[in-house]
Amino acid sequence: MSKIFRLDASIRQEGSVTRALADTIERTVAEELADADVVRRDLGVTPLDGSVWPAAVSAGPVPEGERTSEQVAAAGIAAELADQLEGADALIFAVPLYNFGVSQHFKTWLDVVTTDPRFAPGTQPLAGRPAFLVTARGGGYGAGTPREGWDHATGWMRRMLEDVWGLDLDVIEAELTLADVNPAMADLRDLAKRQLEEAHDAARETARSVTLRLRATV
Ligand SMILES: Cc1cc2nc3c(=O)[nH]c(=O)nc-3n(C[C@H](O)[C@H](O)[C@H](O)COP(=O)(O)O)c2cc1C
Predict the structure, then answer these.
(1) Is the CB of 137 under 6 A from ligand 1?
(2) Which CATH architecture has domain 3-217?
(3) Where are the domains of the chain?
(4) Which of 18, 66, 134, 174 has the highest CB neighbour number within 10 Å of its CB?
């Protein structure tokens, strides 16, 4: 059986582009691998409390028997998150762009994971595992556009997932997702629609090629 871990960070349920693209990946994987088991963590619905991370950091150097109850609880949450990741054969991260930066829910989650000793700097327990980073941006950030270089989230997420954790990462991106609701972007609606279709095609194709590899290895 192949185990898939899926994380969602969109703060909306209805109309979420990252959730829809992750659904396409999940559906394709399920079609290709009859026995796929998907474990989900929905940070948009159940975010981690911001106090968990500093408590987990401060627990690190303290021997287990000497930790405060807050430190014990925080280290326990970090271990649970790390268990979920370690148990996965493939991973899906669906994380939108917010305020030109990374989702705070995703940042908190990743910060907490990193406090678990298995994810300490220099360790790569997930090295080589296939993973998808799905992201969506309301505006456009392409070369030559006024907002080129303003997406400060995707580069950081790639750095952490690909370089620090060593995942074998595919990135699926959708832009201009606010074109339908922002009158100033009315001229971009056709382009946005086309780009979204292309993103779903890319999600399907990439998911198919990843499942081929999973079939060979799991
Ligand atoms: C609070 C908030 C802040 C946002 N900030 C940005 C932003 O800085 N740049 C941008 O292009 N889009 C921004 N957006 C738009 C989202 O990136 C876009 O709607 C995306 O599709 C959200 O992902 P979702 O469709 O999965 O919910 C923001 C949306 C919200 C709700």
Answers:
(1) yes
(2) 3-Layer(aba) Sandwich (3.40)
(3) 3-217
(4) 134
